[in-house]
Amino acid sequence: MSMNIFSTLDPDIIGAHILPRLDGTTLTAFSSVSSELRHMICNDKDLWRNICTSTWPSLLLDPIANNVISTFPGGYHSFFSFYHRNNNYYSWCPSAELIYAIDIYLHGEPFLSRVLVGCLTAENLTIVYDSTLGPRIHIPSKEGWFEYLSKNLTFSWILIDPTRKCAVDLFPSCCKSNFLGGYSRGENMKQFEIGMEGKAGLWPRMELKFDCMGGDPLQLHLRALIVTHNRFGSSSFFL
Predict the structure, then answer these.
(1) DSSP, residue by residue, the chain
(2) What is the pLDDT of residues 33-88, one digit of tens each?
């Protein structure tokens, strides 16, 4: 759509009916079309908040995440921009209280979201949930179950630093899932583990443990989410 067409539209129509239909990446590219559009897009706080919270539902789980992001210069727009930057040079501060927003997606849709607030230290931090509440995955065939999960499960782990007012993506798209092993938990149940490791061994590792109940289609019950950092120790979430 050319800028000539946009110049004939009421700004309220653009803001209410066009911009909310675009994703963040498209909006970022769109903002370079003109200074008017850039101002409209970059300064729409509700627009970027809706984009970020729909992309990362974990941001809605704890008010502190919203409060901290609101203090960023540019708010949620800055948060979105931080996520897409090259974060190889972020330096960790183990004594700082950080926010960790974790989202897992199945077929691109939110599957599980969790938020950690605090410090990752050498001590283990465990949060226990009722295992009956853990989500299930139905896999069409027993054959190729890991390939199915590798293709359809994706991960996001974002570190939010309230002091520096910045965020960093710990699991870029280049990270791949790995099969960690499986073992029997009884005659009719087996447990499988898959994991994902961050950049160059310096970033955290995430493990998902599934109980396999068999059946056709195959039913997997997500039993545990374990996050580990090779500098600060490990944290576990049991569902």
Answers:
(1) --HHHHTTS-HHHIIIIIGGGS-HHHHHHHTTS-HHHHHHHHT-HHHHHHHHHHH-GGGGS-HHHHHHHTTSTTHHHHHHHHHTS--TTPPP-TTS-EEEEEEEEETTEEEEEEEEEE---SS-EEEE--GGGS-EEEES-STTHHHHHHHHEEEEEEEEETTTTEEEESS-TT--EEEEEEEESSTT-EEEEEEEE-GGGTS-EEEEEEEE--TTTEEEEEEEEEEEETTTEEEEEE-
(2) 778 888 888 889 999 999 999 999 999 999 999 999 999 999 999 999 887 775 55
* Residue 233 Ramachandran class (φ > 0 left, ψ -120 to 50 alpha, else beta): left
Which tokens hold the place of 69? Answer: 């992001």
C-alpha to C-alpha distance for 35 and 12, rounded to whole angstroms: 17
Domain ranges within the chain, ordered by starting residue: 3-68, 95-238
pLDDT in tens, 111-149: 888 888 876 654 444 443 345 556 888 888 777 777 888
| Tokens encoding 30 | 């769109």
User: Omega of the bond prior to 63 within 30 degrees of 0, cis?
Assistant: no
pTM (2 d.p.):
0.79
